[in-house]
Amino acid sequence: MNHRIRLRDLLVARSLERGDFVLASGARSTYYIDARKTLFSAEGQYLVGLEALRVIREAGLDPEWVGGLTMGADPVACAVAHRSWIEETPVHAFSVRKAAKAHGTGSRIEGGLPPGASVVVVEDALTSGGSSLEAVRALEEHGATILAVLTVVDREAGGEQALRAAGYSLLRLYTARELLDAPT
Hints:
Number of domains: 1
Structural class: alpha/beta
Number of helices: 7
Radius of gyration: 16 Å
Distance between the termini: 18 Å
Shape: globular
């Protein structure tokens, strides 16, 4: 089985909707990709773990941790961590809260990420780059070293340019066009 094609087909079947939508960025779109519908499924977890870890390794990166802004990043980070353990090259997962907790330790970053750790920021879909940059800011304040940002689907709507302008490179599994043009 070609895992890349199977994950693409699963994203098209489970996560791609056509219509009139307002995105988190405020932009309007004729399609919506709710990648979580795929990424929280058992098969989606398996496939995104394989593909995301492959793309990270092929980029020559060796992060200690992966994660990003909850909740889009959570299934991707956990799938990568799980797959990395199977491959005996552990990469741990973390999650960045949208705001610091008002109780307990008041932490914004969950999962035990130590200051100084090397990380790849992950997310389910990239539009403007705002969620990734919010996670990056929180991680830099924490003392993490950002190696790159990885998204499952790049909507090609300015996110990559925003990340590059801030000094970060983008890794992607798919573009929205790849999903929109895929056979159904």
